[in-house]
Amino acid sequence: MQLLRAAGQLKNVSVKVVDYNHKISFINQLNTTSKADIFIGMHGAGLTHLLFLPPWAAVFELYNCDDVACYSDLARLKGVKYFTWNPEKVHLISADSEGRHPGNGEKHKKFANYNFDIPEFTRILKEMITYVRRNPEFQHSRRILKRHLRSKQKEL
Q1: What is the domain range of residue 32?
Q2: Phi-psi region of 91 (alpha: psi -120 to 50; beta: other; left: phi over 0)
Q3: How many domains does the chain have?
């Protein structure tokens, strides 16, 4: 919730929390993802939704669980910008407890609850916002949207 509050305090930013689960149809998941400019998540299968982001989007993998290349490679192949913690700043991430796989009980970082340094999270998020807003494809999409909204207003 701390990350959500921090993101929500930024000017001109709207935040939406989405839990991609079996109750949400895949079509609805794709529709939601395709409208996101910034996509934030923990290492795991949900990050594969980055494949459906618009071309100007940025993805923030909060913690890669020592699988450094997985989602950075996927983001590169998709053509979206990938962000994560700088290796020198990983000490700003801490686990509440030792993570354990829910099926076999073995230790695994992916299943721990983490705490993140809010100022560093906010700094990275602001960098992402700047990246998206400066992206020519994002700017073009906004011009088209504005034209569309103006034409709708004229119709009224």
Answers
A1: 2-155
A2: alpha
A3: 1
List Cα–Cα distances, 2 to 12, 17, 19, 48, 121, in angstroms: 19, 13, 17, 24, 10
Instruction: Give the integer Cα–Cα distance in Å for 125 and 137.
Output: 19
Residues 126, 129, 135, CA angle at the centre, nearest 5°?
140
Phi-psi region of 63 (alpha: psi -120 to 50; beta: other; left: phi over 0): beta
**What residues have CB less than 8 Å from 144, skipping those under 6 apart?**
none
Q: What letter would DSSP give residue 126? A: H
Question: The pTM is what?
Answer: 0.86
Q: Evaluate whether 65 touches 138 at the Cβ level (below 8 Å).
A: no
Distance CA 54, CA 137 (A): 9
Report pLDDT digits (tens) over 59-98.
999 987 778 889 999 999 999 999 999 889 989 988 888 8
Share of the chain above pLDDT 90, in %: 60
